């Protein structure tokens, strides 16, 4: 089965939304439901549905990516190595960016925004898909220099009021994706195309989410990253894998009607599970509760159904051409805002005050997201494409 355009479009829309909601901090007088719900509060805003959607889509891509690799001759060992290297890359990127959030600029000697740009530039240097015509020695030199730069940054880093050292305070968005990808990837390698194994894995993660919140997970297991042992975030990614396998089954039979009914029924069942579990642990992103897992999975499935009919069934993929780079070069798109914020700071420029309020501000943030996609497109045209 070839590349599914609707998954790319769904990923692109999610990334555009992610940049949009991440820029809302710069605005005032905007609807509260657009942002994140504060810690401990029962409920979610639009921003609280974006990251779980992305985790879900990461899982949706796995069956297709692994199928293509197997067609090229990759063994289980090759796939496991790919999963491990990709996980390490995401963890490294997440670790450096999250340390930048709490950097002590005075003690380190580097401003937070400059730190972010240096880190992002090193990421691009290390994981760029260089043209085959480029001199191999030059590529190796650039990659080694970038690795040395990151090492030096980690050594000189001082963070927080106590000027603490470089450490995984938390893994950041990219790191969390890495841990979830590790679980879903490893399970998918050994499950191959056995949908029953994938379904069991999702059920176990959903149960683990509930056990974690019921404080029934043994303490000796708490050393495992929360994205895994908490069950919720890894469950989102595994749910994406399961959805794709169901999709492939009906798609191969060209049975869009049954596919739609089945996925819509699954979304309805997940919403019911969210309603059932919410009274026990609440509906919270920051708490990564089971209700959040079920509801956001349902939202993503519904969005996928709609986009699938528009893009793959009715062939209206051109409607989304403007955001397509965010779906095919997603990681690069994610890094672009770091450059944008740093450039604005370095030039000493500021956005007019009237553009930071209400509906005008929202338009500004949306156009900013589209600008980041446009920059990504330009960079890909000159040979910058991240591949991990």
Task: Describe this entry's structure for a reader.
The model has no long low-confidence stretch (mean pLDDT 95). By secondary structure, the protein is mainly alpha-helical. The chain has one domain. Helix 1 crosses helix 15 (358-381) and helix 7 crosses helix 10 (232-252). The protein has helices at 5-22, 47-71, 76-101, 105-108, 112-127, 136-156, 172-191, 195-213, 226-229, 232-252, 256-281, 290-313, 325-328, 330-347, 358-381. It is built from 15 helices and no strands. The protein is globular and about 55 Å long.
Characteristics:
388 residues, mainly alpha
Brief summary:
The chain is mainly alpha-helical and 388 residues long. Helix content is 70%, strand content 0%.
How far do the termini sit from each other? 22 Å
So how many helices? 15
Radius of gyration computed on alpha carbons: 21 Å
Beta content comes to under 5%
Task: Report the count of strand segments.
Answer: 0
- Multimerization status: single chain
Helix content: 55-70%
What's the arrangement of secondary structure elements?
Blueprint: H1 5-22, H2 47-71, H3 76-101, H4 105-108, H5 112-127, H6 136-156, H7 172-191, H8 195-213, H9 226-229, H10 232-252, H11 256-281, H12 290-313, H13 325-328, H14 330-347, H15 358-381
């Amino acid at each position: 089965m070839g590349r599914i355009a609707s998954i790319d479009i769904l990923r692109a829309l999610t990334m555009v939304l992610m940049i949009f909601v991440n820029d809302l901090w710069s605005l005032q007088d905007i609807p509260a439901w657009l942002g994140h719900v504060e810690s401990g509060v029962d409920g979610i805003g639009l921003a609280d549905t974006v990251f779980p959607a992305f985790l879900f889509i990461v899982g949706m891509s796995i069956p297709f990516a692994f199928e293509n690799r197997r067609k090229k001759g990759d063994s289980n060992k090759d796939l496991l190595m790919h999963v491990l290297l990709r996980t390490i890359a995401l963890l490294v990127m997440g670790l450096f960016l999250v340390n930048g959030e709490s950097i002590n600029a005075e003690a380190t000697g580097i401003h937070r925004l400059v730190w972010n740009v240096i880190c992002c530039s090193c990421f691009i240097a290390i994981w760029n898909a260089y043209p085959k015509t480029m001199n191999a020695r030059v590529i190796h030199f650039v990659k080694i220099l970038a690795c040395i730069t990151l090492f030096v940054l980690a050594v000189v880093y001082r963070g927080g009021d106590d000027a603490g050292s470089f450490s995984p305070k938390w893994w950041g968005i990219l790191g969390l994706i890495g841990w979830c990808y590790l679980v879903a990837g490893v399970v998918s390698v050994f499950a191959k195309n056995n949908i029953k194994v994938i379904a069991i894995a999702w059920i176990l993660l959903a149960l683990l989410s509930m056990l974690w919140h019921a404080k029934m997970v043994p303490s000796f297991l708490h050393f495992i990253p929360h994205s895994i042992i908490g069950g919720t975030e890894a469950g989102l990614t595994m749910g994406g894998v399961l959805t794709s396998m169901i999709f492939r089954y009906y798609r191969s039979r060209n049975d869009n009607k049954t596919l739609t009914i089945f996925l819509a029924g699954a979304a309805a069942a997940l919403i019911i599970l969210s309603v059932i579990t919410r009274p026990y642990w609440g509906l919270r992103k920051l708490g990564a509760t089971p209700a959040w897992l079920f509801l956001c999975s349902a939202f993503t499935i519904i969005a996928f159904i709609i986009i699938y009919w528009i893009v793959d069934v009715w062939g209206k993929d051109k409607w989304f051409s403007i955001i397509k780079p965010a779906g095919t070069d997603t990681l690069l798109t994610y890094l672009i805002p770091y450059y944008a914020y740093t450039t604005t700071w370095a030039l000493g420029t500021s956005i007019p005050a009237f553009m930071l309020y209400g509906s005008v501000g929202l338009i500004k943030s949306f156009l900013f997201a589209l600008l980041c996609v446009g920059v990504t497109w330009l960079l890909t045209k000159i040979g910058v494409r991240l591949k991990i």
